TrEMBL record:
Pfam families: TatA_B_E (PF02416). This is Twin-arginine translocation protein TatB. InterPro entries: TatA/B/E, TatB. The keyword Cytoplasm does not apply. Keywords: Cell membrane, Membrane, Protein transport, Translocation, Transmembrane, Transmembrane helix, Transport. It is found in: Membrane. It comes from Sphingobium herbicidovorans (strain ATCC 700291 / DSM 11019 / CCUG 56400 / KCTC 2939 / LMG 18315 / NBRC 16415 / MH) (Sphingomonas herbicidovorans). GO terms for biological process: protein transport by the Tat complex. GO terms for cellular component: membrane. Residues 80-133 have a biased composition (Low complexity). One of its GO terms (molecular function) is protein transmembrane transporter activity. PANTHER family: SEC-INDEPENDENT PROTEIN TRANSLOCASE PROTEIN TATA, CHLOROPLASTIC. The lineage of its organism: Bacteria, Pseudomonadati, Pseudomonadota, Alphaproteobacteria, Sphingomonadales.
């Protein structure tokens, strides 16, 4: 970017040590880093804004292009009138407009089934599985 060689960088470091001093040099470098970071952030923000504006312009151009193509296609292929008779609105009567006294749930509402209690397993299965399996099969029982 600035095309600074190693000799120029060494000269800058020597002058900075002489002018600023070795005691305040770390603080000065920290401040320079902060300023450079803020400058990069501002440049990134500016670039992002420019990119967003370019994208908006491109979208507007595409919308115009699509609208022109749509208009051309609609002119080439006009809509054909339908041979079906036109629909007429339903006549509303006072009985149909009145609310229904008995409210029944609509047919698409699912009714929940009542909860069924699961039966408890046998008492032999209440213990750990390996003990329950042994007692159920008869293995492991003391000889009688």
């Amino acid at each position: 970017m600035f095309d600074i060689g190693s000799t120029e960088l060494l000269l800058i470091v020597i002058i900075a040590v002489i002018v600023i001093g070795p005691k305040d040099l770390p603080r000065a470098l920290y401040k320079v880093g902060q300023v450079l970071g803020k400058a990069r952030g501002m440049a990134r923000h500016f670039r992002t804004g420019i990119d967003a504006m370019v994208r908006e312009v491109e979208v507007e151009e595409l919308e115009k292009k699509w609208a022109d193509q749509n208009k051309r296609i609609m002119q080439e292929h006009p809509a054909e009138p339908s041979s079906a008779p036109a629909m007429e609105p339903l006549a509303t009567t006072s009985a149909a407009a009145a609310p229904v006294a008995e409210a029944s749930p609509p047919p698409f509402v699912a009714q929940s089934a009542p909860a069924v209690a699961e039966p408890k397993p046998a008492a032999a299965a209440d213990g750990p599985p390996y003990i329950a399996a042994q007692s159920a099969t008869g293995k492991g029982d003391a000889p009688a």
